[in-house]
Amino acid sequence: MPVKGAGLADGIEVFPKQDKLSADEFGNALRAPLGIHQANKKRYWFYAADYSFEEQMSYLMHLKKISEAEMAVFVSGLEMPPEFAPPKIAVATVRPPANGNYREFRILDYVSVRRKMARNYWTQCPSCAQQGRDKSGDNLAISIADPRKYKCWGRMHPRNDSDGGRASCSALSSEASL
Predict the structure, then answer these.
(1) Residue 96 belongs to domain spanning
(2) pLDDT of amino acid 93
């Protein structure tokens, strides 16, 4: 197949076009199917279907979907390059008071807040982290107004129910919901 840009006007384009980028540079923009070109306002179509929005959507709806197991086989053995790997998040450990004087439980004593959004602090759920989950570090919501109210939004325990076979982490949740 001819490669566009190798002395040819037509052919496939190969991306990325650069051998490397510095940390402050961006690579080439890619055209997304069904996206609209910002200069000429024309839509990019899938070539395998007629050029109408309805036919394009029909084409997409009839493509074979792959299962989670098929995806796992496809990516097995692949590793993310270290320079793109997300930062390691330390697992929070629960430390009872050294003097044995137990007071009211305060979740904020045991976690580090990662971000504040709307009415909640968001951080890593210690229970999920102990089981190797919540790698993004933002499953646990803690009410800013009343930190006694917190809830893990992680989906870690398999279960047969109407929730698609998954249930929320119940290891960490206060009586009052957020």
Answers:
(1) 86-178
(2) 59
